[in-house]
Amino acid sequence: MKIIKILIAAALLALSFGVQAQDRQTVVIEGAEVLDSEVFFYFPGATTYKLYIEFDTTLTPTFTSPTEKQYDNAVTGFNIEFFDASGVLIPGPSVEYDADDTSLSPNMSPRVWFYSGSSDVLSFEINTLEREIGHWIDISGPAGSLYSDIASGFPQFAVGATDARVSYIHMAVGPEWNPHFDVYGAISQISYLELDADGDGFADSADSCPASLMDETVMFDGWLDSGVTNYVDASGCAIMDHYAACAVAEAEEPTSPWGWFQPVYSGPTYCEKQVVYQLQDEGVIDYTEGRMLRNALSLSYSSEGPRR
Fold this sequence. Notes:
This protein is of the alpha+beta class. The protein contains 5 helices and 17 strands. Keywords: Signal.
């Protein structure tokens, strides 16, 4: 079955506060219910929500014990989205916070508290001069409902369904709490936002080519358009990645035994020729597309266009 290139920018739009660095983790907390009347005023028809919290995992805790850790400025991004009963995103006032946004003053309440003992608790505030008392967040639940590991390194959240509840989230969109709304109630599940740096539909953790060449169609030599869609295969590699790998392999081949005298050959390499057959065998392209790729590859060598 043909695997087409999937654009998942929408999945990352929830964290529009920037491209997530490798030293940051974004936790996604999905709420199973919306109980505050103010939410319905700003987000009519809301039934569920997703809370996004981005943490800087490189920080050293200001306090630590077997059951507790505290950090300053560990929350680097924050957002919440509301959805109707069909799962459609409901537009409304933004409560987005981005610590990298230079137009905002620093968070005046930087302390983040993680606790995992008789119960699990996450508590922090986001409080800037622009929003005065901005966001208060308190999430708690039975032991093991929030965290899988709090002792070693930066606290890790328990992924999956949970019995935790949002005790209280106060959102102030503008100064002097205007507008504002509260969120509280059951949480359905917790997950981590998977990064997809090249936007090919494969999370970086499962992508064999995390920096894919994502042209819309397969280009040869940087200028010749084959007209074939630059599909992504089951490993997360685009067609152009396969051809690029051939160039790398050729560059790493040992020096020719001919020495200074090199036989003259100008044409596709064996590796490049095999790409089409491999893609056809895997069902990524059909016969017609394979023929188009072979013709374009040969033309890129035989024409007067640039050849790197």
